[in-house]
Amino acid sequence: MQSYVLRIEGSGVVLAKVDAPVPEPAAGQVLLKMLAAGLNRGEFIPGGLVKGGAARPAGIEGAGEVVALGADVTGPAVGSLVMGRCAGAFSEFALMDVREAIAVPPSLPIESAAAVPLAFLVVHDMLVVQGRLRADQWLLVAGVSSGVGVAAMQAAKVLGARVIGTSGSAEKLARLRELGLDVGVETRAPTFAHAVLDATAGRGADLVVNAVGGSVFAECVRCMAFEARLATVGYVDRVLQAEIDLQALHAKRLVVFGVSNKLRDAEQRAAGIPAFRADLLPAIADGRIRPLVDRVFAFDELEAARACMEENRHLGKIVLRIAP
Predict the structure, then answer these.
(1) Number of helices and strands in the chain (H, E)
(2) What is the pTM of this model?
(3) The predicted structure's pLDDT at residue 43
(4) Is the domain defined by 2-116+291-321 classed in CATH 3.90.180.10?
(5) Which ranges of the chain does DSSP label H, i.e. alpha helix?
(6) Where are the domains of the chain?
(7) What is the 8-class DSSP label of residue 24?
(8) Residues 165 and 184: beta-carbon distance below 8 Å
(9) Which of 179, 128, 133, 120 is nearest to 160 (CA)?
(10) Predicted confidence band at 52 (pLDDT cuts at 50, 70, 90)?
(11) What confidence score (pLDDT) does residue 53 get?
């Protein structure tokens, strides 16, 4: 089969297409014929999801057809379509932990299904499990045009919350307003607290999602309401240090938390799947949430897809189509 691998070379991540044997599913695994896979910025950042050493399979989420089952696996059935997180998703065939396999809703195109697993499982953790976002609360998303940012906006609207988002693109904010964004703030600088406080009548946001990094961390804290929560989910600005206002943290009883699976084992990652199925999957299945796929690239166009993502030309997710 054809498969992409990546490795760190100098200060960058290099992709290469190789011939590899079709893997055999072990106990607890299913083998998928991959149909589509989602791109994620962190996979192409050294020190993010990529570590040094030998080349490793590229791609961490996708959707495909089940073609074989490992020992003791009784479902999903061979021939069914599933989506989920998996290593080596940029391949013609890939293995998936059966606990991660989520049935693709009949109404969902396969390219949209490939854009669901990573973004929406992160968003469920961030908004529901740790963020405790409730109806009529305010959510602020710094970097709302990213894949996770758009998914957070969509999920928050289904939960009944109101959403403020920042982006450096007026065009992207206009598109997101059509999709439900309540307040858009056009800026790439840490200068949005005044707009957030104005929109919330001086109260601030109940939950803040920082999808940008350390350069906006202090400004995110300034946007927080009493007993608000702040989620850090990315650092595309490559800024890994930030000052923190301890007086605000103390007096306003703030909660600051991270959203990452880097140190979780397979059992810990899979533990959140049942709650995601109950809380957000029904809205994806009935169309209240429709994953926003900006562009779909052919399997041979992975480098072009990566360039599109790194140049911030997309809104939402970029997907690689692997097979018809």
Answers:
(1) 11, 16
(2) 0.94
(3) 87
(4) yes
(5) 110-114, 117-123, 147-158, 170-178, 193-199, 217-222, 246-251, 266-270, 273-279, 281-285, 302-310
(6) 2-116+291-321, 120-258
(7) P
(8) yes
(9) 133
(10) low
(11) 62
